[in-house]
Design brief:
Blueprint (H helix, E strand, L loop, with lengths): L2 H18 L2 E8 L2 E8 L1 E3 L3 E10 L12 E5 L5 E2 L1 E3 L13 E7 L7 E9 L7 E10 L5 E5 L2 H7 L4 H15 L21 E3 L4 E5 L5 E5 L3 E3 L6 E3 L4 E9 L3 E9 L2 E11 L6 E2 L4 E5 L10 E7 L2 E3 L20
Parallel strand pairs: 3-10, 11-13
Antiparallel strand pairs: 1-2, 2-4, 4-8, 5-6, 5-9, 7-8, 9-10, 12-15, 13-14, 15-22, 16-21, 17-18, 17-20, 18-19, 19-21, 19-22, 22-23
The structure holds zinc ion.
Zinc ion binds next to loops.
Length: 331
């Protein structure tokens, strides 16, 4: 292992640790409800903020999966509803859910500084309450590099055919869905391949140089692993396959839903082992790596989308859902 590969592996390990650390905590009561809130009060640009809210009440609990009990917003973001998740402590009679989770992405362009997180409590039988919580953003440097495309890749990149646009619409529809019952895994996610050599990082500013010399700049929204053709590609977490098809630019592609609004995407596969609608366990086989679509060689592109925005996949390898340590192995 060369020294910079060692440094890279060490940095990756630090990133994973950081993703699960630095949780803010707050206990409060609202009406008859006792509430405990945990969130990551420090975040890198390109990561996400997740808030876990545990609520209990004396006597009979009457919460159901359909109840909106709280809403989360960050900065000027429109906000999202909390969704119920298993608490990992077993459920008390009459209360199917006592824990709720919500997460929002932080843009790669977010500058260092403070953001305000707002949690609006809407518990039944209690007054509405707005909690404002501080979040410190650490700005991250993203690299920039030029990628030369041959004629075939240039054609794929500049393809505006109805078929390509329909593929794009299908993908956007898939990752835009927020199904409150789509809760499959809240414990840390795993890497999708045994090959850990990263060939391009999340958030890189890419300048594509076309065959005719023209250029186009875009952001690399996933992490690329230098997996040789035929390497097993495994689901980073339990979930449901919501898209599995050949796409012009990303080749054989799979999208898996893990939590409401949270999806993992796998691109450039050589072949698929799953179909749409199938449920998969964590590390279940999705297919084999390849170089289909726009690729200069075999690799796996792993991407995560939260409420349609790309988030650094490494963030989800930590305890992002703020499970108590003894519960981090639960699904
Ligand atoms: Zn990629």
């Amino acid at each position: 292992m060369k020294w910079f590969d060692k440094l890279r592996a060490f940095t990756a390990a630090l990133l994973v640790l950081a993703a699960g650390a630095a949780a803010g905590e707050m206990d409060f009561t609202q009406g008859d409800w006792a509430c405990a809130l945990r969130y990551n009060d420090t975040v890198d640009s390109g990561d996400a903020v997740f808030v876990r809210l545990a609520v209990t009440r004396q006597g009979t609990l009457s919460l159901s999966a359909a109840s909106t009990i709280a809403r989360l917003s960050l900065g000027s973001d429109a906000g999202v509803d909390f969704y119920p998740v298993p608490s990992g402590k077993g459920t008390s009679p009459g209360a199917a859910y006592t824990d709720f989770l919500a997460g929002l992405p932080v843009s790669t362009r977010q500058k260092a500084g403070d953001l305000t997180l707002t949690v609006t409590i809407l518990l039944p039988g209690a007054d509405k309450k707005n909690l404002t919580l501080p979040v410190t953003v650490r700005a991250k440097e993203f690299l920039s590099f030029t990628l030369k495309l041959d004629q075939a890749n240039t054609d794929r990149m500049t393809d505006n055919s109805p078929a390509r646009i329909a593929q794009s619409d299908r993908l956007n529809r898939a990752v835009s869905a927020t199904n409150p019952r789509g809760v499959y895994q809240q414990s840390p996610f795993a890497l999708p391949t045994g090959i850990t050599r990263i060939t391009d990082r999340f958030g890189t500013r890419r300048v594509y140089q076309y065959a005719d010399g023209k250029t186009n700049t875009s952001v690399h929204w996933g992490t690329d692993y230098g997996a040789p053709k035929g390497t097993p590609v495994r689901s980073c977490a339990a979930g449901r396959v919501v898209l599995a098809e050949m796409r012009n630019q990303t080749g054989w592609s799979v999208i898996v839903e893990h939590l409401p609004g949270l999806y993992s995407l796998y691109y450039h596969l050589d072949s698929l082992a799953v179909e749409e609608g199938m449920t998969v366990r964590q590390s279940g086989l999705l297919g084999y790596s390849g170089a289909t679509g726009i690729a200069t060689g075999p690799h796996l592109h792993w991407e995560m989308r939260l409420n349609t925005q790309a988030v650094n996949p490494a963030f989800f390898c930590g305890n992002f859902a703020h499970l108590e340590p003894k519960n981090t192995n639960q699904e």
